[in-house]
Design goal:
The protein is mainly alpha-helical and about 120 residues long. Helix content is about 55%, strand content about 5%. The protein has a two-stranded antiparallel ribbon. Keywords: Plasmid.
């Protein structure tokens, strides 16, 4: 079975390989997965990121290790590498399409909820 992977060159010149998350890994880290998705799409929804700064780094490290073909390569990643690594994780996992669908569902639910809560006027 061939898996889609993406190499990512770090500022040190080393290259790490990003691999898609497996379904069982996503299920085991469902809260982290949702928090990362919500954080990365917060500005699109006009909301603040749900991850508090003190929670962001441990979640980021778990997601990074999960995304590397060799989890120990996380020790090679430095702060300036994070944008490129996160972009590779986003692309490899198809999170752009997932986020679009999730945002559309959330928008529809918000519109439905607003319609239900809207005061009705008498004719």
């Amino acid at each position: 079975m061939t898996m889609y992977t993406q190499p990512c060159t770090l500022t040190s010149g080393a290259t790490v390989t990003i691999t898609p998350w497996r379904l069982d890994e996503m299920a085991a880290l469902a809260i982290d997965f949702q928090a990362v998705q919500d954080t990365l799409t917060a500005t699109l929804r006009g909301q603040s990121a749900p991850l508090l700064p003190q929670r962001a780094m441990p979640v980021l490290v778990r997601v990074l290790r999960l995304s590397l073909t060799r989890p120990d390569d996380a020790d090679l990643v430095m702060a300036p590498d994070l944008p490129a690594v996160l972009q590779a994780i986003w692309a490899v996992n198809g999170l752009g399409d997932y986020a679009k669908k999730a945002l559309l569902q959330r928008l529809r639910a918000d519109q439905w909820r607003a319609a239900l809560l809207k005061p009705r006027t008498s004719p």
